[in-house]
Specification:
Shape: flat
Helix content: 10-25%
Largest sheet: 3 strands, antiparallel
Number of strands: 3
Strand content: 35-45%
Number of domains: 1
Order of helices and strands: EEHE
Distance between the termini: 40 Å
Length: 92
């Protein structure tokens, strides 16, 4: 049985720099990772989303808004949650 993780992140958008009129990038802070067998991951993700939706209701969660304080998201991944991006972000 393959083990995967249902990972919860707090994601927000950050200003990267003035190049080409300004650019932004999304960054995620890990909140929680739940290991599970792959065949049960989607069902678990859906259950976690029911809680996350309530968390997002209490926030300005549109990350494109300057008043945003981030939004929670749930991802199925091969490993435990890790912050992203993994280091300095550069304009390309």
């Amino acid at each position: 049985m393959k083990i995967v993780y249902v990972n919860v992140y707090l994601v927000d958008r950050f200003y990267g720099g003035p190049e080409e009129g300004g650019w932004y990038y999304d960054a995620g802070r890990p909140i929680r990772g739940i290991p599970t067998v792959a065949r049960k991951a989607e069902r678990l993700r859906d259950k976690v989303w029911t809680v996350i939706d309530r968390w997002n209701d209490d926030r300005v969660s549109d990350i494109s808004s300057v008043s945003s304080d981030g939004c929670y998201t749930v991802l199925i991944e091969d490993g435990p949650p890790a912050p992203f991006p993994e280091g300095p972000v550069h304009y390309e």
